[in-house]
């Protein structure tokens, strides 16, 4: 059985099921049920994966903006 992506994501991000649900368009109840039964639908899994990718890309963008600012300062 694969790792429970709902539990893992909430734990890693330090957020509740409700907060995750608000970010990906699912209710807290739907996430709780999916997490407790281990029956996580493919669309729910994809939504979580895409949310995590968005967070990663925002971090990269922030780093890029910082680097751009440093380059501008010294050129």
Describe, in short, the structure shown:
Helix content is 79%, strand content 0%. It has 75 residues and is mainly α.
Distance between the termini: 54 Å
| Total number of beta strands | 0
| Global geometry | elongated
Sketch the major β-sheet.
none
Residue runs with pLDDT of under 50 for 5 or more positions: none
Radius of gyration: 16 Å
Global structural class: mainly alpha
- How many separate domains? 1
For the residues shown, what is the average pLDDT? 95
What is the string of helix and strand elements?
Answer: HHHH
List the total number of helices: 4
How big a fraction of the residues is strand? Answer: under 5%
Helix content, binned percent: over 70%
Keywords:
single chain, 75 residues, mainly alpha, 4 helices, 79% helix, elongated
What can you see in these coordinates?
This protein has 75 residues and is mainly α. The protein has one domain (5-73). The protein is built from four helices and no strands. The protein has helices at residues 5-13, 17-24, 28-37, 42-73. Helix 2 (17-24) crosses helix 3. The longest helix has 32 residues, at 42-73. It is elongated. The model has no long low-confidence stretch (mean pLDDT 95).
């Amino acid at each position: 059985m694969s790792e429970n992506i709902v539990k893992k994501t909430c734990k890693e991000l330090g957020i509740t099921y409700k907060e995750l649900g608000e970010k990906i368009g699912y209710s807290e109840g739907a996430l709780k049920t999916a997490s407790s039964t281990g029956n996580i639908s493919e669309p729910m899994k994809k939504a979580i994966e895409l949310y995590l990718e968005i967070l990663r890309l925002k971090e990269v963008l922030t780093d890029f903006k910082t680097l751009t600012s440093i380059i501008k300062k010294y050129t």
